[in-house]
Amino acid sequence: MHKIGVIGLGNVGTTVAHILLMQGMVDELVLIDQNEKKVAAEYNDFGDSFAQTAHSAVIKQNDYRELADADIIVTAFGDIKATDRTGDRFAELPINLRNAREVGEKIKDSGFNGILINISNPFDAIVDALQKATGIRYDRIFGTGTLLDTSRMQRAVGDHFNEAPQNVDGYVLGEHGDSQFTAWSTIHIDGKPLTALADEGKINLNELATQIKNGAFTIMAGKGYTCFGVASCAVKIIEAIFSDKHTLMPVSAFMEKYDCYVGYPAVIGRNGIEDLPEVKLTDEEEEKLAHSAKVIKEKTAD
């Protein structure tokens, strides 16, 4: 039996819940949002679909007590309009810091003892606030981090070479924001190092880096929010936890080296972050990672 709570039923939280239900990954689903009418609407809308779908689940509404025996909580609260107005993911920081403290206290009071995955922007800062509010161990509370940015990199590289994104390996690291960077030394396509292909003039890495970083705002300009990409990343993490896959993926993990959460490859399994193996980076990439961690800490301290 798998039980998951989703806190925040905006575009992303609702999409996560929908994917979990359609894929039969959850037996009990707890939906929580400060907008009670929205919770009731989603509860009834999901319920109307069950007669026509292969899977269904028991759904509970707006009851933090139901989180006591949940396996996983996904936090997806926020105000996407703040980001839309400024183009800056940190525009949601003051709003979501308040949300994180309030929600975190309620999660703590519920007796929850599972794994928490944060999607609320800015990922790295908000998961830190949630950790402080809940007291959950660092290996059991983390964010989706740069997994989405890595997906965008895989798509961009794959499109360039007319290959499936699944054939592209490697990572985007650092902040889920302006200071993120693609660790080109880690990127391979069909087993071939991308840096070697760049040296041969087959790809322009600078142009590609800009495309990857600006991917979200292309979507935002068209429909005002993103949902499918990041929701799929959260579901992939959940699947790795439930199946104990020990999958290496770049999430927003707490790194003692930098004393903050930052996007870095972590091994995800039944217990959350099972390991943070050292990934070999170039000296330049190490400097970029340290800089990105510094940016996160400075913005969080403001």
What does this structure look like?
- There is one protein chain.
- The protein is an alpha/beta fold and 302 residues long.
- Helix content is 45%, strand content 19%.
- The termini are far apart.
Concise synopsis of the structure shown:
With 302 residues, the chain is an alpha/beta fold.
Task: Produce the secondary structure layout.
Blueprint: E1 3-7, H1 11-22, E2 28-32, H2 36-49, E3 58-61, E4 72-75, H3 80-86, H4 93-110, E5 115-118, H5 123-134, E6 141-143, H6 147-160, E7 168-169, E8 172-173, E9 181-182, E10 188-189, E11 192-193, H7 194-199, H8 205-213, H9 215-223, H10 228-242, E12 247-255, E13 260-269, E14 272-275, H11 283-301
Parallel strand pairs: 1-2, 1-4, 2-3, 4-5, 5-6
Antiparallel strand pairs: 7-10, 8-9, 10-11, 12-13, 13-14
Query: Helical region count?
Result: 11
Give the termini distance in whole angstroms.
Answer: 42 Å
- The string of secondary-structure elements, in order, is EHEHEEHHEHEHEEEEEHHHHEEEH
Q: What's the pLDDT, averaged over the residues?
A: 93
CATH architecture classification name of the largest domain: Alpha-Beta Complex
Q: Which regions are unreliable across 5 or more consecutive residues at pLDDT < 50?
A: none
Major sheet description: 6 strands, parallel
CATH topology of the largest domain: L-2-Hydroxyisocaproate Dehydrogenase, Chain A, domain 2
Spatial strand order of the main sheet = 3-2-1-4-5-6
Radius of gyration equals 19 Å
Q: Give the overall silhouette.
A: globular
